[in-house]
Amino acid sequence: MTPQSSPLPKVLAIDDSELIHRLLRVRLQHEQIELHGSMVAVQGLKMARDLQPDVILLDIEMEGMDGFEVLQALKSDVDLQDIPVIFISATASMEDRVRALDLGAVDFVAKPFEVVELKARVRSALRVQHLVKMLAQKAQVDGLTGLWNRTYFDRRLAQEVSESIRHRRSLTLVMCDVDGFKKLNDERGHPFGDMVLERLAKILQSGRGSDIPCRYGGEEFGIILPNTSGSEALEVADRYRRAIELETWPSAAGKVITASFGIADISMLPGTQGVEDLIAAADSALYKAKLNGRNRVEASSINQSTG
Amino acid sequence: MRLTPDDTTLRSEFADDPDMAAIVALFVRELPQRLAAMHGALSGGDLEQVRVLAHQLKGAAGGYGYPKLGEAAALVDHAVKEGQQVNVIRSRVGMLAAVAARIRP
């Protein structure tokens, strides 16, 4: 799995007037968006959590929770605080506009709204949100290899471990390290070393779609294999090992570059172990692979290895 | 602005927009109920409810192509917000009802 682009942006309208929702549905029907609506503030907040919309259109005057309270609830929720909010309101006082903007709304459209203006402001907010998402994604992608970076790896592995425990699904972690990388850099220069890492990353990305290869460190990679047992992972890792061994290198005719692999199946760990233990187990299996001659795959706790 | 032979009727500014036809028709059909609810709230002494209903009309009417209706509703909304006397509010509701009576799709 690698970083992907997103489908139609989602717009959530929270307004207690059915008239407004009907109007929005008609007026925004030709926009490249998916429109959702709620007439009750509390339900609107729940929908925001479930949908993770790209823009929220929010009324101010609603019975029960008003728009300002909804905005504050959105901004204090770590999963929702980055969603741009456009207030649409028949309350047009300057004080209200300033208050809305100070509370974190990105824009304000007065009701009755001019359709062209509303569309333009929604598009503008979506453009900004697209950039924000791209930026967030870039912050999780390793610049050199295009793989997910260490930040993403840590977060994703934690998620997969808890999913694995909760749903009793198999999960194996593979740690992979280029053999003799420092020597390679010293002999052939860093640009060559970089090229090796890039090529390796491509090999790791050409595996099963469900595998999640990440750049873990300088020359170390972590591959998360959800729904995969240790024995399946042995085969997968060995395929990668073989592909790397067989790879030919420009400007280094005849040179063979290899990598070592350590795998750890979460079900093999004693008791309820967490992320750190899984990484430690895979790492010590990787160390075993290095000790046993490199260019091999070693498993932690299972009595099998190949290479 | 459309000039019609009978210039007491108020037609939607979006009367020629096929996209809007259905929801404008629905708006016009529901208008009497909204006014009835407002009169009900007024007789019941619930001025806040009068204001809420007026506020909703104020925010939507323009979008359906009836700016005059929206303006009349705004006058009711403001009268209640400013704490005007009941007879002033009643009079403004009356003016709103008069505009509403002229509304056609």
What is the strand and helix layout of this fold?
The complex is a heterodimer of chains A (307) and B (105).
Chain A: E1 10-14, H1 18-27, E2 34-38, H2 41-51, E3 55-58, H3 67-75, E4 85-89, H4 94-103, E5 107-110, H5 115-138, H6 150-167, E6 171-178, H7 181-188, H8 190-205, E7 212-215, E8 220-226, H9 230-246, E9 259-265, H10 275-291, E10 297-299, E11 305-306
Parallel strand pairs in A: 1-2, 1-3, 3-4, 4-5, 9-10
Antiparallel strand pairs in A: 6-8, 6-9, 7-8, 10-11
Helix pairs in contact in A: 7-8
Chain B: E1 10-11, H1 21-43, H2 47-60, H3 67-81, H4 86-102, E2 103-104
Parallel strand pairs in B: 1-2
Describe this structure in words.
The complex is a heterodimer of chains A (307) and B (105). Chain A has 307 residues and is an alpha/beta fold. Chain A has two domains: 10-136, Response regulator (Rossmann fold), CATH 3.40.50; 150-306, Alpha-Beta Plaits. Helix content of chain A is 46%, strand content 18%. In chain A, helix 7 crosses helix 8. The longest helix of chain A is centred in the middle third of the chain and has 24 residues, at 115-138. The longest helix of chain B is centred in the first third of the chain and has 23 residues, at 21-43. In chain B, helix 3 runs antiparallel to helix 4 (86-102). Helix content of chain B is 66%, strand content 4%. Chain B is built from four helices and two strands. Chain B has helices at 21-43, 47-60, 67-81, 86-102, and strands spanning 10-11, 103-104. Chain B has 105 residues and is mainly α. A two-stranded parallel sheet of chain B has the order 1-2. Chain B has one domain (17-104). Chain B starts with 9 loop residues before the first strand and ends with a strand. At the A-B interface, helix 1 of A face helix 1, helix 2 and helix 3 of B.
